[in-house]
Design brief:
- The chain is α/β, with parallel strands linked by helices.
- Helices cover about 40% and strands about 25% of the residues.
- The chain has six helices and seven strands; from the N terminus they run αβαβαββαβααββ.
- The protein has helices at about 5-20, 40-50, 60-75, 115-130, 150-165, 175-180; strands at about 30-35, 55-60, 85, 105-110, 130-140, 185-190, 200-205.
- A seven-stranded mixed β-sheet has the order 3-2-1-4-5-7-6, sandwiched between helices.
Length: about 200
């Protein structure tokens, strides 16, 4: 059971966003895919709070997949499916056998800034296929706006990410908006979060 201090700090604010978005659908069973689940702390907390959602966690790293399994076992989370290996940069047909129009929600927490542009393209292309009509894609992270990164702490984060991997860095909201539009979705809301983080809410048309 791996531990992410950031996940412990931010899960409640993320849950509040999800609760607000999904409260009018709590009368029916929903299906959610989490991309880049990491340690599994988020998906377990969400499952405990929202029993009407069945969660499919995923990651590309075996250590994280093992951690998710451990959290699921210890918490006896009945609405969390076994984690699957999923590389979001791959075509959606390779997304662990998920069917077209099968997901109500896709969530990606702190994924895009640690990914290549190819992965961002894959996330939006896959979401456009796998989400049901009116389904939601929710991304959480730090973003550039119109090619500009502010304040200085975010500029520093972008520099650090690019030193770790030249393909990484803060994605631009306008670029993501265009990716969404090209895949049958529109950006519905930008929710300001703690420490300059944002939740971007996209809806499939």
């Amino acid at each position: 059971m791996l531990l992410s201090p950031q996940a412990e700090r931010n899960w409640q604010s993320l849950y509040s966003v999800l609760e607000g978005l999904l409260e009018d659908q709590s009368h029916r069973q929903l299906f959610a895919l989490e991309l880049g689940s990491g340690t599994g702390q988020h998906v377990i907390r969400f499952a405990q709070k929202m029993p009407f959602v069945t969660w499919q966690p995923s990651d590309i790293k075996q250590d994280f997949l093992d951690s998710i399994k451990a959290y699921t076992a210890v918490t006896h989370a009945k609405t969390v499916l076994p984690p699957v290996h999923l590389d979001a940069s791959e075509p959606w047909e390779k997304w662990a056998g998920l069917n077209r129009n099968s997901c109500d929600i896709i969530i990606a927490i702190n994924l895009l800034q640690y990914s290549s542009f190819k992965t961002a393209q894959g996330v939006f292309s896959g979401a456009g296929q796998i989400l049901k009509q009116n389904g939601l894609l929710i991304t959480y992270g730090v973003y550039a706006v119109n090619g500009t990164i502010t304040p200085s702490c975010n500029e520093k984060l972008d520099e650090e990410l690019r030193k770790m991997n030249p393909d990484w860095g803060l994605p631009d909201i306008d670029v993501l908006r265009q990716l969404a539009y090209g895949n049958g979705m529109r950006m519905e809301r930008i929710i300001e979060m703690e420490e300059y983080y944002k939740c971007l809410i996209f809806r499939k048309l």
